[in-house]
């Protein structure tokens, strides 16, 4: 099966070498629907100012942000910087803005989710809360791997296997 990667048509604004997406939450969700319906893939980074500063110091992090489909503005200083540079970002989209909107969006469109990461129990708590607030939401899996600076090959294989078996539309 061939994967097709759609290129978003949103603008990006250079903030200290990081290409931050200039997109509204409504447009972002609409693009998500298009990506899912076309069986394509995208990756999203939630990017506050401290992450931009970390990326400025670390080329690996910088490459992750600059190669993401969406690098969202999650910080007022990032928004201010874009305005100061004369290229204002369309909207600040924090993780706390995105999550409830995304859960509602998934419920309405019958898109599925998989919660990956966090401390033990956090994923299951999030699943329970999401199911209470959004009855009928399709959460296909939850997995919180043990903390490690670097996962062993077997742990990576387990994570990939769980996600591939679940076939979620979104991995958070």
Q: How many individual β-strands?
A: 7
Portion of residues within helices? 40-55%
Counting copies of identical and different chains, the oligomeric state is single chain
Structural class: alpha/beta
> What does the main sheet amount to?
3 strands, parallel
Instruction: Note poorly predicted spans.
Output: 1-6
- Strand content range: 15-25%
Mean pLDDT: 92
Cα distance spanning the termini: 24 Å
Total helix count?
7
The whole-angstrom Rg is 17 Å
- Along the chain, the helix and strand elements come as EEHEHHEHHEHEHE
With strands numbered from the N-terminus, the spatial order across the biggest sheet is 6-5-7
Form type? globular
Describe the structure.
The protein has a 3-stranded parallel beta sheet, sandwiched between helices. Strand 1 (11-15) and strand 2 (18-22) form a beta hairpin. It is an alpha/beta fold and 172 residues long. Helix 2 (49-57) crosses helix 3. The protein has 7 helices and 7 strands, in the order E-E-H-E-H-H-E-H-H-E-H-E-H-E. Residues 1-6 have low confidence and may be disordered.
